[in-house]
C-alpha cells in the first residue's frame, strides 16, 4: 500500500493507531477466507465424489439434463474446485464454477423449494464469497502467485 493510501486510511479511522494492525492482517485474512471457503467446498464435495452419479436425479429435478453428465460435474466442481481454491491454483475459474453451483442452490432453495431468503441465505453468502475470489484471484499467498501466472 502506498504511503498516500495509508495516510488516507489512517485519517478515516476512529483510532488511527490501528492502521498498521489492519494493514498487516489484510492479506492474511483474505488468504484465510480463501482457504476456509475452499476446504468447506471440498468437505461438501467429498460426500459426492465417492458416488459421482448419486446426484443425477437431483440435478435433473433442477432441470439439468442429462443427470449422468451434470452429477459428476457437480461432484468434481465441489471437491476438486474447492481444493484448487484452497491452495490458490486456477483460483478464478474454480471460484467461478463454485459461484455458479451456489447460485443454482440459491434458485433451488428460494424458488423450487419455496423457502425464500431464509432458505437461500447460506447459499447467497457462499456465492458472494466465491464471486469475490472470481474477481480478486488468489492474492500473493497462492500457487497462482508462486508460479507467476493467473487466469
Automatic annotation (TrEMBL):
Predominant location of this chain?
A: membrane
Membrane topology (UniProt):
Multi-pass membrane protein
Q: Which residues cross the membrane?
A: 31-49, 69-87, 94-111, 123-139
The subcellular localization recorded is: Cell membrane
Segment forming the signal sequence: none
Sorted alphabetically, which Pfam families does this protein's record hold? DoxX (PF07681)
For whether the record's keyword set contains Transmembrane, the answer is: yes
UniProt keywords, alphabetically: Cell membrane, Membrane, Transmembrane, Transmembrane helix
What is one cellular component GO term in this UniProt entry? plasma membrane
Query: In the UniProt record, does the keyword Acetylation occur?
Result: no
Query: Record's PANTHER family?
Result: INNER MEMBRANE PROTEIN YPHA-RELATED, OXIDOREDUCTASE CATD-RELATED
Q: Which family does it belong to?
A: Belongs to the DoxX family.
Q: What is this protein called?
A: DoxX family protein
Q: Which organism is it from?
A: Borborobacter arsenicus
Amino acid at each position: 500500500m502506498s504511503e498516500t493510501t495509508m495516510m488516507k486510511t489512517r485519517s478515516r479511522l476512529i483510532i488511527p493507531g490501528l492502521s498498521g494492525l489492519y494493514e498487516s492482517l489484510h492479506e492474511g485474512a483474505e488468504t484465510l477466507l480463501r482457504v476456509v471457503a475452499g476446504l468447506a467446498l471440498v468437505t461438501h464435495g467429498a460426500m459426492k465424489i465417492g458416488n459421482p452419479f448419486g446426484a443425477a436425479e437431483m440435478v435433473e429435478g433442477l432441470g439439468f439434463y442429462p443427470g449422468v453428465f451434470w452429477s459428476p460435474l457437480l461432484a468434481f466442481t465441489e471437491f476438486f474446485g474447492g481444493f484448487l481454491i484452497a491452495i490458490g491454483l486456477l483460483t478464478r475459474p474454480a471460484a467461478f464454477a463454485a459461484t455458479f453451483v451456489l447460485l443454482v442452490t440459491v434458485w433451488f432453495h428460494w424458488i423450487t423449494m419455496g423457502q425464500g431468503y431464509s432458505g437461500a441465505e447460506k447459499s447467497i453468502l457462499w456465492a458472494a464469497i466465491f464471486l469475490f475470489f472470481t474477481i480478486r484471484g488468489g492474492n500473493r499467498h497462492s500457487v497462482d502467485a508462486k508460479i507467476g501466472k493467473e487466469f
